[in-house]
Structures are given as C-alpha cells and as structure tokens.
Amino acid sequence: MSAFLHVTRGQHPLMSDTYDLIVIGGGTGGYPAAIRAGQLGMKAVCINAWLNRDNKPAYGGTCLNAGCIPSKALLESSEMFHRAGHELATHGVKVNAPTLDLVAMQARKSKITSSLTGGIGALFKANGVTGLEGTARLMGKGKVEYTSHSGEKKVLEGKHIIVATGSEPVELKIAPFDHKQICDSWDALDFTEVPGRLGIIGAGVIGVELGSVWARLGSKVTILEALPTFLPMVDQTIAKDAQRQFTKQGLDIRLGAKVISAKSNGKEAVVEYESEGAKKSETFDKLIVAVGRRPYTKGLNAEGVGLELDPRGFVKVDKNYKTNLAGVYATGDVIGGLMLAHKAIEEGVALVEQLHGEKTEVNYNAVPSVIYTTPEVAWVGLTEEQAKAAGHEVKIGASPFAANGRAKALEAATGSVKVISDAKTDRILGVHMIGPYVSEILQSVVVALEFGATTADLQLTMHGHPTLAEALHEAYLAVDGRAIHAINKKKVS
C-alpha cells in the first residue's frame, strides 16, 4: 500500500474522489457532522489536519486534545490532591501529607485523551465514513485539494462541503508566545513542573480553570484582567460570589489591569501593566495568555476562492450555515458566537440533517455554559441584567447550597442558584448558579428552556431527596415566595 493510501485506526481507504459530503476539520464541529452524514446514508469524508505535540495525528481537535478533556482531567486530579491535603481530615479520614506525582497526573490526562480520540476512527468505520489525515484547500466549484501529511495530493469533489476548522488561541503582539515562559492554553496543560509564580492574562473561563489547576498544586497565581468586571457574561450576583470564592482559594484576581507588554528573558516572564492609573510590573516563572480564541482558516485558500470572512476573520454564514459560495457551509468556532464544543457539535449535526432534507435548527437561547472550577459555575439563558435590558419585567428566585443536605454531606455547601423568570408570562428566562456539580444540575434547565417551561411547571416537578438539584427546585419556588427551606425574598422588577 502506498504512503498516500495508508490510513489508521481501521478507517476506510480512499476509494473514490467523489462524495456527498466533504468535511474539512476533525474536531467537534467536524467529526460528528461526518458521523451523522454516514448514519443518513450519505457518502462522507472527514479531513483531519490536527497533529499533537508528538507529531502524531488525532481526531477531536482542540476539545479532545488541548482543551475540554485534558483540562477537566487535570482539574479533577488537582482537586483530589487538594482534598487529600485539606479536606479528608474533616471527614474523619486521616492521611499523611500528600505528595504530588505530576508525571503520573499528566500520564492519566494523556491516557483519557487518547482513549477518546482513538475511538473516533471506530465510529467512522461503523458509520461508513472515510477519515483522511492531512490538510484541505478549497479550490472552488465543489472541489477540495487534499494533502496527506506525507505530502501526497489528491483532488476530491463533493456535493456539499462543510468548513469546520475551529479556532486557535489568540496571540498578543505585546506578549508573543515562546511556549516556554510565555505560553498558550495548550502549553499550560503540559507543564512538567509546578510553576512557583504563575501569571495569567485573562480572567475568563480558560484563565480561571487553568489558574485553579496550578494553584491547587502549589503555584502562586496572579490573574490580570483588563475589564473592570469579573465574568461579565454571568449573572453578576453569581459572578461576584465566584470572585469571592476564587480569591479565598488563593487566586489573586486583579481587575482593570491592562497589560502593556510581556517579555521572556529565557528564565522568567516580565509583565508590565497599568492599573488604577499607575504602571506596574510583575515577574513570573510562567505566563499563560488566555485572552480568547480566534478562527483558524490557515491554508484554507479562503481568499483564493472568494470565501467571505468578517472583519475578525470568521467565516460568514446565513441562518442555515451557508457561506457565499455555492455548496459550501461552515459551523463551529470558525463562524463565531459561543466557542463551545457542544455548540459546534449541534451545529454540524443540524446542518447535515438540513442537507438531508430535514428541518432542524439550533436553539441559541438554550446553550449551556460551564466553568469547571470548584465550586463550578454554570448558566443558561439570560442574566438578570440582560433580561431587564431586553424589556422583561423579571421576578427572581434564589436558593443557597448552605441549606442543601447533600451539599453539606459533600462538604461543599457553598454557592447558590438564581432563577430569572418573566413576571408576566411566568416563563423561565435564565438560570445561573455556582456550587457543587452544577454542570450536571444545569442540564434539566436546558430541557426546561427547550420546552418553554414556566416557573409553575418546575415548581410542581418533584426532585429527589437528598440531592443537589433540590437547590434548583427551591430557587424555582423562591421566585414566587414559596421556598420551604430558605427565607423568601420575592423580588419583581
């Protein structure tokens, strides 16, 4: 078999140049779309360009290889380390002071990641999808030039083409990556030593998650955020509580701190920033730049074929993900909006079903968001501030985890649930929460929003006892001053 025809993990070899669907991108915006196409009887190929740091190809894109999955593995491991040193004694479990084996922790993370990425090839085989490792270049008129990692080229033709090339970390001109002292989020998941002094530019989801990991393992963490507000996308009652709790845990969160420059001297990163009208300086062993992500379209030949991009480089699409080129569509991070793996998955699947003649759409008013710190922060729908700005008269209900029996048993009775409802229609507009495992509790709210549930509907829904979800039920009851295990403070505004 030639090098060009070599495929891995049981995937189908390239048997034809012509496909019903060509998916460019093997991340969460791409591979699920290809799988769904295979399920619907479409002849699909997925071209995956991702190479890991060991130069080996892997499906799953940023999420499985350098984002969602490895970060959650490290968050869980670092939390176990923290509990062993600070919490087990409270439960009556006496242990010696724990010691950190970072090599084993990183190995566990890598094993979890590889097990998931390796399974995608099997899913392709089961659904009749062809998987190709290499890059793709748009040629126009339904044609794509595929180049294998070994350099072989071939032209593929597709009735439909989906661009799902994802995103990459934003690099600041004032803080260029050297991937040693000044790092991106992927670098920060692969540290071989715990930095004594860790700086992070950006107090968003990525910044606080990575800060939490390394602070638990012993780093002194300083987060510099240019905005004056912490987590502005979260309801501010919840966001302020989160800031208090993260600060108690040792994260030094400095709001209104605008970085002027960051330079590496080969051993340390020196950061100059402005705060409260004064110029200041900090020196770190490692600096993580976590100021967001930008669309990845390198090598796509967008300009060459006239694919329209917006001023920030995102591929422009209509409500059905169609670009300005006939037969070319785009989904996921590369089209902007919330850069979340689950959003990308749903967009790709919805698009494929539309191409198959079905009427499917994504409800962007019910996209869940989570920060996997301890406690977790999770939300869906409008904040109180957004609801009022949109003209809603709102009524608010809240319930603290301090009154929740399961949270107390977990030694995690911190945080609260906040429900925002429309005072006139009684519809749930949004739910924001901070507390133990709220990422799991949130999913019932997503279902409620999908079905247009009212507050009364959910007040009448029985929740198991004792469960963390009872805090959510109490918050629903509190909207109308009916909470049983908390003092009611009914608020309509």
UniProtKB/TrEMBL annotation:
Cofactor requirement: FAD
Gene Ontology CC, one term: cytoplasm
Record-listed FAD binding positions: K72, T165, G166, S167, D333, M339, L340, A341, H342
Binding-site positions, NAD(+): G202, A203, G204, V205, I206, G207, V208, E209, E225, G292
Domain named FAD/NAD(P)-binding: residues: 19-348
Domain Pyridine nucleotide-disulphide oxidoreductase dimerisation: 367-475
Keywords: Cytoplasm, Disulfide bond, FAD, Flavoprotein, NAD, Nucleotide-binding, Oxidoreductase, Redox-active center
Cofactor binding comment, as recorded: Binds 1 FAD per subunit.
InterPro entries per the UniProt record, alphabetical: Class-I_Pyr_Nuc-Dis_Oxidored (IPR050151), FAD/NAD-bd_sf (IPR036188), FAD/NAD-binding_dom (IPR023753), FAD/NAD-linked_Rdtase_dimer_sf (IPR016156), Lipoamide_DH (IPR006258), Pyr_nuc-diS_OxRdtase (IPR001100), Pyr_nucl-diS_OxRdtase_dimer (IPR004099), Pyr_OxRdtase_I_AS (IPR012999)
EC numbers on record: 1.8.1.4
Protein's UniProt name: Dihydrolipoyl dehydrogenase
Organism: Panacagrimonas perspica
